[in-house]
Amino acid sequence: MNALVAFLAAALTSWLLGKPVIGWLARINARQTVYAYAPETHRPKEGTPTMGGFLMILGVLAGMLVWGMAHRGENLTLTLVIFAGALWFAAIGLLDDYWIQRLTGRRGLEWKSKLALQLAAAAVSVYMLWQAMPPPVMDESLRVFTGEGFGTLALEFGWGYYLLAVLWVVGWVNAFNLTDGLDGLAAGLTAIAFLPLCSYAGFMAGAEYAPMLLGACVGYLWWNVHPAKVFMGDTGSMFLGASFGLLTLRMMLSSPTWLTAASYALIGGVFVIEILSVVVQLSSVKLRGGKRIFKATPIHHHFELLGWSEPTIVMRFWLLGALFAVAGLLLMELL
To answer: Rounded to whole angstroms, how far apart are CA atoms 70 and 21?
Structure first.
C-alpha cells in the first residue's frame, strides 16, 4: 500500500507541476536544438522546452517524502543514496543542456569531458552505495568476491567488482541518454523497465525507489507523448539511467551472480539494443571503410528513415520493452 501511495504521489506531482515547470523552462530559454544530421521530421521540434527531467526529479522527491512520512524516515538510507547518485548525473546533464551553451555558446559538453564526469560521478555513487548497504547483506554479498569487506579495497576481486559496478552505471546512463530521441520513447521504456523492480518495494531496502521513479515517469509522460510539450534533455535521461543502474546494482549486491546481472540487462533490453546499435555502427564505419549497417543510429532513427511514423516506432519499442521486462522477470523468478 505504501508503494502505491508513493507511486501516486510521484505521478501526480510530475503531472500537476508540468504546466508551470514547462512555462518556467520556456522563460529561461531552455529550448531544444536539433542536430544538423537529425531526420527532417525533427525540425519542427526545434525550440520545444527541454530539461523536463526536473519534473521527474520533483516527482521522485514527492514520493520519498510520502514514503518517509509513512515510515517516519526509517529505512530510507539506500533510497536517498540512489537518489543522490542520480542527482549527480542530472547535474552533468544540466551542465550539458543549459550552462555550457549559456556560458560558451557551444551546444554542449565535448564527449570526452562528459564521459570523464560520468566516470567520476559513478565512482563516488557506487562507493556511497556500497558503504550504505546493510552490513549483513554487504558482507555476505562481497564474501563471494573478496572474502572481506569493501572498506579494505582488496585487490583480489574487490577492485574488479568495483570497476565493473562503475561501468555498469555509466553504461546505463549512456544507454538511456541515447534512447531519448523520440516523443515518449525513453520515459515510456523507463516506466516499463521499473515496473518489475516494484515487486521488491517493501521487501528490500532501497527498492521503494522503483515505484517512485515509475510514478514520476507516468506523470511526465502526460506532457511528453507525441506531440511533446517538453523534452527531458540530458538532465532527465542521465537521471533515469543512473537511477536504473544504481537501483539494479543495489539489488545485485544482495544476489551477486551473472544470472542476476543478465536478468536486469534483459529488463532494460531495448536500452541495450539502442547503445549496441551505436557501437556496431561506429565499429563498421571504422573497420569497413565507412560502410554503415544502419541508415542512422541510435536504431530508432533507422526506423524513422525507413518511413515508420514516430508514434509507431515508440509504441512498437514499448511493446518490445514489455516483452523484455517479462522475460527478465521470469529469469529473476528462476534465480
So the answer is: 28
Task: Flag whether 312 is in a domain.
Answer: no
Q: Is residue 277 assigned to a domain? A: no
From residue 41, give the alpha-carbon distance in Å to each of 37, 46, 200, 231. Answer: 11, 11, 41, 16
Question: What whole-number distance in Å separates Cα of residue 70 and Cα of residue 253?
Answer: 26
CA dist 90 and 113 (Å) reads: 15
Domain that holds residue 30: 2-257
User: What is the separation, in whole angstroms, between the first and last Cα of the chain?
Assistant: 26
Report yes or no on 193 lying in a domain. Answer: yes
Q: Which three cell numbers stand for residue 170?
A: 555509466
- What are 302-312's pLDDT values in tens digits? 999 999 999 99
Tens-place pLDDT, residues 175-207:
999 999 899 999 999 999 999 999 988 788 899
Q: Are 63 and 6 in contact (CB under 8 A)?
A: yes
Joined together, the cell numbers standing for residue 197 give 523492480
Please, are residues 166 and 123 in contact by the beta-carbon 8 Å criterion?
yes
CB under 8 Å to 40, separation ≥6 — which residues? Answer: none
Q: What is the DSSP string of 41-97?
A: GGGGGTT-B--THHHHHHHHHHHHHHHHHHTTTTT-HHHHHHHHHHHHHHHHHHIII
Q: How far apart are CA 293 and CA 311, in angstroms?
A: 24
| Model pLDDT, residue 71 | 73
Does residue 88 sit in helix, strand or coil?
A: helix
CB-based burial label for 279 (10 Å; 0-12, 13-18, 19+):
exposed
pTM of the predicted structure, to 2 decimals: 0.90
Structural domain count of the chain:
1
Average pLDDT over residues 220-249: 96
Q: Kindly write down the DSSP assignment for every residue of 163-213, as one continuous string.
A: HHHHHHHHHHHHHHHHHTTSTTHHHHHHHHHHTGGGGGTTTSTTTTHHHHH
C-alpha 239: how far from chain center: 6
Closest CA to 126 of 146, 153, 95: 153
* Residue 322 covered by a domain: no
